[in-house]
Amino acid sequence: MGNTHSPTDVVILGGGLAGLTLALQLKKRDPDTQVLVLERRADPAPDATHKVGESSVEIGAHYFDQVLGLGDHLKQHQLRKFGFRFFFSEGRRDIDQVTEIGASRHLSVPSYQIDRGIFENHLALEAKRRGIGLIEGATVRQVALNSASAAAADGPHQVGFEHGGSTHTVQARWVVDASGRAGLLKRQLGLAEPNQHLAHAVWFRIKDHIHLDRWSSDPRWRARCDPQARWLSTNHLVGAGYWVWLIPLVSGSHSVGIVADPSMHPFTDMNSFDKAMAWLEHHQPLLFDELDQKRHLLQDFACFKRFSYGCKQVFSAERWALTGEAGLFLDPFYSPGSDFIAIGNTYITELVAMDRRGERLGARAQIFDQLFHSFYDSTMALYQDQYTLFGDPEVLPVKVIWDYTYYWGVLAQFFFHDRLTDLSALAALRGELAQCQQLNASMQNFLRQWSGLSLKRNPAVMLDQAQMPWFAELNRSLTDKLDANGFIARIRESHERLNRLATEILRRAQAAHPTLDTSALAQCLSATADATGTDEPMLHETLP
């Protein structure tokens, strides 16, 4: 005989990062909202839980800290990240003799290296403390959605699950799938949507920290950073068609991943630990030297042949939604996973709040879904077909500055200033946002063409982002407090900044390579208000 639970407002399928943060956000928005989380795992997660998503960036970190109120945990029980860092160390053991991209000091807005096991266990405890129902060891067997075509279209959904050797049923007004790549609702509703980003990834964890700062004994190289703690960065060792990540975890482990374009680095060359080590010996020998003596400290190994995918729909007026990897996934480069959880959960929370107020969801759910997919498409442009230039010490530094400027200047501004659901601001900025998106797509194509001609010079320099005043100020500006008019002015300022930066990039590339076809980017710029590029230089002076 099955057990029937009391009806609830929201059932969340999955108690990992996406599901638990959504539960906390819903409860914080409206403490009267009844939330039940069904998590398959019965026991607490081990430290260094084998999941991608340890590196947070500004949106995700702000979401965990300010939106969910988890700042004390982040500061006391996780590692503050020393930003992103890139080394053009393909085939090299002299890391102090290659180009490095990174900041010499912490910028204003913090981000964190997150041990997923420690963090998700804390989220579970916090959920229980805040009155959220959490059933661990629950296996979802059936989701019966009450569709709009049903006779009682406003009636509840029904979820069947197994727990403790018996069957259970619960009715809920909302069902949110946070089941990760299992994608329970996505499969049930036929929402899976492949994309054209074919990259693969392998990753593992070593039970020891990798102190990259010790890879050189040159005191001048070490002293470029204050603190001398490059190892706390999300370090990227880059080469043509791939990048390797190094992410430290507070539990004492280090996460190592290889992400590659299969046309240049076949999956079968790295799909076991021994193969990955042989691959590293050839492409990143200094990291191989470090890991070779620590093989006995290997904790785990996993791989995805094709990790990136889309989803036809993630929010529905019929009171269901998908969040996290149950919906879509981009690429781990720039660590956008927790950002998209934050954005998606914010839209879901707004829809649930509207529903509880008795408001109609149809138009708003459709707009939120379109916006979320627009953010996905804009971010995908940073990755798709771009892996060929990752080993280019001349062009990748320009791409990194552009990509940060686009992220901090547009999407992060919307999130930090709580304007994701502000349709009046979105309407007022429709033209600027469309042009920014078009300019970004054109820039990504241009960077790829430029890399096809570049000499790929790799001087022993550090391209210090902290020494670019406008860049550091853009990061700091995320913490401003803006009213509606101030926010609109801020996005218009970002639009103008992107045009100035694009103009400078075009001129810099054209000066180095007069035969480079600049027509498409120039045409995109010709429609902008002020792209004269008369301000102070925005790029590193040492770039070609």
Give the topology, please.
Blueprint: E1 3-4, E2 8-13, H1 17-29, E3 35-39, H2 58-67, H3 71-77, E4 79-80, E5 84-87, E6 100-102, E7 112-113, H4 116-129, E8 133-136, E9 139-144, E10 157-163, E11 166-177, H5 184-189, E12 192-193, E13 200-206, H6 219-222, E14 234-239, E15 242-248, E16 254-260, H7 273-283, H8 285-292, E17 298-304, E18 310-311, E19 315-316, E20 320-322, H9 337-356, H10 362-380, H11 396-416, H12 423-428, H13 430-453, E21 462-464, H14 469-476, H15 484-512, H16 519-526
Parallel strand pairs: 1-11, 2-3, 2-11, 3-8, 5-14, 6-21, 11-20
Antiparallel strand pairs: 4-7, 5-6, 9-10, 10-11, 12-18, 13-16, 13-17, 14-15, 15-16, 19-20
Given helix and strand content, the structural type is alpha/beta
β content, as a range? 15-25%
Radius of gyration: 24 Å
- Roughly how much helix do the residues carry, as a percent range? 25-40%
**Which spans have pLDDT < 50 for at least 5 consecutive residues?**
none
**What is the average of the pLDDT values?**
94
- Ends apart, CA distance between termini: 73 Å
Contiguous helical run count: 16
Per the principal axes of the C-alpha atoms, what is the gross shape?
globular
Main beta sheet strand tally, sense and closure: 9 strands, mixed
User: What is the number of E strands?
Assistant: 21
Which oligomeric state applies?
single chain
Q: Would you kindly provide a brief summary of this structure?
A:
The protein has 544 residues and is of the alpha/beta class. The chain contains 16 helices and 21 strands. Keywords: Oxidoreductase.
